[in-house]
Amino acid sequence: MLPMVGSTREWWRDAVVYQVYPRSFADSDGDGVGDLAGLTARLPYIASLGVDGMWITPFQPSPQIDQGYDVSDYCGVDPLFGTMHDFEQLLEAAHSMGLRVLMDIAPNHCSSEHPLFQAALEAGPGSAERDVFHFEDGPDGETPPNNWVSSFGDRSWTRAHPSSETDLQWYLHIFSPAQPDWNWRNPVVHDFFDEVLRFWFDKGVDGLRVDVAHGLFKTEGLPDAENPGAVVKGLRFNPHMTDQEELHDVYRRWRRIADEYTPTRVLAGEVNLDADRAARLVRADEMHQAFAYPFVKIPWDAEQWKSTAERLAEAHADVGAFPAWSIENHDVVRAVTRYGGGPTGLSRARAALLIVLGFPGAAYIYQGQELGLPEVDVPVDARVDPMWLKGGVSRDGTRVPLPWTTAQEGTFGFSSIDADASWLPTPPSWGEHSIEAQRTSDGSTMGFVARVLALRKNLRADGTLALDKSVRWQAKDDVLTVERGNRFLMVMAMGDHPAPLPAGELMIASGPSTADGLLPPDTAAWIRLRGR
C-alpha cells in the first residue's frame, strides 16, 4: 500500500481540492484524449497552485457513452486513460507532492456493458441476476412500468429485448439507457460495493467522491410520479428517485469501512437536495462532506447568496459538519459565462471564487476555473454529451481541454505529442487563456488564485480562519458581507455601484479598489479588522 500524506487531522473539513477531468487535462500519447500519464506529468502545476488535493473524475473501464460515468468495471483502468500501473505511479507522485487523491465512484448506475447487467439480460425474467437491477413488466411491450422521465429528458425505461415476444420486461435508468440503475434493495449490491471501496482504499486513495449520492434507492413499488417531467432549479426532479431513508444505512456502512483505515478515507457526496436534507447525509456516522450544490446554479444576487450560504452552513453546523463549496464543475456552465460573460463575467467569477474560498468549510476548484476559462460554444456536429443527444442540453462547453500554451496550432499544449486535434475542438483564441500566457501576465487569474490559496493557508495556520469561528452573514444594498470571528471580514459588491470598504487591512481583492476606499462593482475583498 502507498504511504498516506499528511497527519491524521480532519484535513477535508477546510481543504481546497482541485477537480481533474482527466480526458481534458493533459494528453501524453497524442491520441487527443487526456490520460493518467499526462496528469502525472503535469502534477507539479496542480501542486504549485497550493491546493490540498485533487478529485479525479472516472477513469475506470467504460464504453464512454457518458464520458466515464457509465462504468463497466469498477476496479480497473480504462485503456483510454492508461493502465493500473499508471494510476499507481500517479498516486505515488501525488502523495510525494503532498496532494491527497480522491477518485470518483458511481454507485447509482453502471454501464449496460457491465458483466452483471449482461448476465441479467441473458438470464431472463424472474432470475436472481435480474434482481440486481430494476427489471419490471409493463402492461405490454409498448408501455413502460411507470411514467418516470430520465434526467436526460426521455423516459426512464428501456426494453430488455425489444424484439422478443416472450420477454417483455423493461429496465430502469434515471440517466441514459446505457446506464442501468442498481437495485439497492438487493443485499448483493451492498456486498459488491463494499469490495469496490476496499479495493481502492487498499490502493491508497485518500477518499471517494460519490456520484448522485442522493440517489441509489427508489420508492418501493416504483409508483407513477405526479409530475414526471418536473424541473426544479434547472434539474429534473422526481421524489421517487431520490432521498429515500434507506440511503443512510448505506453511508453508515461505508463510513465504517472508511474508518477501518488510517488515516480514515474520506467520503464526499454529490448531493442535490435542500440544505436540511443534504446535511442529514453528513451526520457524524455517515459521509464526511457534501457539495454545496446550489452554488453552481444561483444567480448573481447578494440576497440569494446570503440566504443560500447561511442555510447550508447552519444546516451542516447542526450535525457538526461543514459544506464543500464550489461554483464550477464538469456538469455546469463555466462561471465566467454564467455570470454574464466577457470582462464582467470574469470579474464576477474571480470575486465569487475569492468569497467561497473564505467560507467556512472545504472548497473545490474545477480545472480551468483558475484560468478564468469561459464556456465554449462547441459546434453542434462536434458535441458528444448524451444530455445533448437525448435532451438538447450540452455540457461539452465546460469540458473542452485545457490550454497549456499560446501556440496557435494543434491543441495548445494539451497533447505532448503534436496531435492535430483533441476529443473536443478548441477555439482559435484558446491560447489567450493558457497557463503559459498567464504565468507571465501581471494580474492574471491564475496568479490571483495562487495568491489567495497561499493567504488562505496562512490564515488557517494562524487561527484567523479557524472553523470554530462564528460566522455572520449579511446582504444589504447589493453587497454581501461575511464575517468570521472578530478579525476577518469579506465583502463582495454585487450591484451596479461601488461598496465602501470597512476599516481595516485590505489583505487581497479580486480586482482593483478605488483610491477613495470603495470597492468597484463585481469585486470582492478580504479585510483584517482592527481593534476587535
Describe the structure.
- With 532 residues, the chain is of the alpha/beta class.
- It folds into two domains: 11-108 and 187-439, Glycosidases (TIM Barrel), CATH 3.20.20; 115-172, Alpha-Beta Complex (Oligo-1,6-glucosidase, domain 2).
- It is built from 13 helices and 20 strands.
- The strands form five sheets. Strands 11-10-7-3-2-1-13-12 form an eight-stranded parallel sheet, with helices on one face.
- Helix 5 (187-203) runs parallel beside helix 6 (247-258).
- The radius of gyration is 23 Å and the shape is globular.
- The protein starts with 15 loop residues before the first strand and ends with a strand.
- Mean pLDDT is 93; it is low at 1-8.
Radius of gyration: 23 Å
CATH superfamily of the largest domain: Glycosidases
Whole-number total of structural domains: 2
- The neighbouring-strand order within the major sheet is 11-10-7-3-2-1-13-12
Helix content: 10-25%
Summing up helix and strand content along with how strands pair, one would put the structural category as alpha/beta
Q: Assess the beta-strand content as a share of residues.
A: 5-15%
Tally of DSSP helical segments: 13
